[in-house]
Design goal:
Blueprint lengths: L1 E6 L4 E8 L3 E9 L1 H4 L7 H23 L8 E7 L3 H18 L3 E5 H7 L2 H4 L6 E6 L4 E6 L5 E6 L5 H11 L6 H9 L24 H16 L6 H26 L4 E5 L6 H14 L2 E3 L3 H4 L3 H13 L34
Helix pairs in contact: 2-3, 4-12, 6-7, 6-8, 6-9, 7-9, 9-10
The protein binds 5'-O-[(R)-(carboxyoxy)(hydroxy)phosphoryl]adenosine and zinc ion.
The site of zinc ion (ZN) has 6 residues, from α4.
Length: 350
């Protein structure tokens, strides 16, 4: 079954074609970063307009890349939330139009469920139970996906999301948007132990996070050095900030997996592309005997393939979304309909 996945929740217009929930035939991303960069962040109105301009060309490119025509598509999956309402609306309207015009089943997908399902594109099936660290521009949480497919949030940020903190600190360091990849790159030449930034809530016994104090600590340190005439080594600041973020994320995720007796850990979302997080998480999981699944970098940041994969899981379980579905900027995670391991690759729900 070939599912077309459409993702427009933030600043990437993404369309993919995925066979049987696991095999990526095409994964095209029309980036809007250049349009948002002058403003140092995503401007919701610009995002919505850019999605409108990019959606059809990106869709055309996906069909060419996948060597398909509209006739080959069996279903349409689309992100319905959470995200920016104007941005979501464009993808949802496009998906509805396509489903109506081609008489195809439509399935609405939760963006965060999509991030988690990115893992099945490389591992073949989700295979819960698993603990997922979801770290993106808008979300930071530790989620348990239990053997029955139910999600429960074990902890989350009480203020800034991880990607938001990376982007804000990058701005203070004079780096372009999006700042996460810039900090990651710069940090490779820096000393992660140069500045002892705070690790908020590390020992509070919860799986929650707080990042706004860390961001303020970076700004204070930059101002203090500036006022004292101390030269600022941007690479050291980037590496020390990144280490503080990663340190808490790695320890809390492992603690959550241990508390719930779960062997499998996954790290997903745009910040999962961070090389230090990947490195530290890999080492920590190996040392503690956890099995780690992290999608490749291209599948961590927003993409249509993860939406097609999540959509396929639900379509395979017989779910459909009505054409009256509405974009929901605050959509919450709902249980996966069946244990995803039983929705193994190869089966066609049609
Ligand atoms: O999941 P995503 O593509 O979009 C949202 O759903 O928000 O995540 C985007 C976020 C941005 O804040 C970006 O700076 C961050 O992911 N990001 C990174 C890296 N690559 C992207 N953060 C740290 N290191 C990276 N290599
Ligand atoms: Zn995302």
């Amino acid at each position: 079954m070939l599912v077309l996945g459409i993702e427009t929740s933030c600043d990437e217009t993404a369309v993919a074609l995925v066979s049987d929930g696991v095999q990526v035939r095409a994964n095209v991303i029309g980036s809007q970063i250049d349009q948002h960069r002058p403003y140092g962040g995503v401007v919701p109105e610009i995002a919505a307009r850019a999605h409108l301009e990019l959606l059809l060309p990106v869709l055309d490119r996906a069909l060419v890349e996948g060597g398909c025509t509209y006739d080959d598509i069996d279903a349409v999956a689309v992100t319905v939330g959470p995200g920016l309402i104007g941005a979501l609306l464009v993808g949802v309207a496009g998906a509805k139009a396509l489903a109506l015009a081609r008489d195809l089943p439509l399935i609405g997908v939760n963006h965060l469920e999509g991030h988690v399902c990115a893992t099945q594109l490389e591992s073949g099936a989700l295979d819960p139970p698993m603990v997922a660290l979801i770290v993106s521009g808008g979300h930071t949480s530790i989620v348990l996906l239990d053997a029955d497919g139910a999600f429960s949030t074990l902890g989350q940020t009480i203020d800034d999301a991880a990607g938001e903190a990376f982007d804000k600190v990058a701005r203070f360091l004079g780096l372009p948007y999006p700042g996460g990849p810039e900090i990651d790159r710069l940090a490779r030449d820096g000393d992660p132990a140069a500045i002892a930034f705070p690790r908020a809530m590390l020992h509070d016994g919860t799986f929650d996070f707080s990042l706004s104090g860390l961001k303020s600590a970076v700004v204070r340190e930059l101002r203090r050095r500036d006022a004292a005439g101390i030269e600022i080594d941007v690479a050291d600041v980037a590496a020390s900030f990144q280490e503080a973020v990663v340190d808490v994320q790695v320890r809390k995720t492992l603690a959550a997996a241990q508390a719930h007796g779960v062997e499998r850990i996954t790290v997903v979302g745009g910040v999962a592309a961070n090389s230090r997080l990947r490195e530290r998480m890999t080492a920590a999981c190996a040392a503690a005997g956890h099995r780690l699944l992290i999608p490749s970098v291209a599948l961590c940041t927003d993409n249509g393939a993860m939406i097609a994969a999540a959509g396929w899981n639900r379509l395979a379980a017989g779910q459909r979304t009505g054409l009256d579905v509405e974009a929901d900027p605050n959509l919450v995670l709902t249980p996966l309909p069946v244990p995803p391991s039983s929705a193994a690759p190869g089966g066609s729900p049609r």
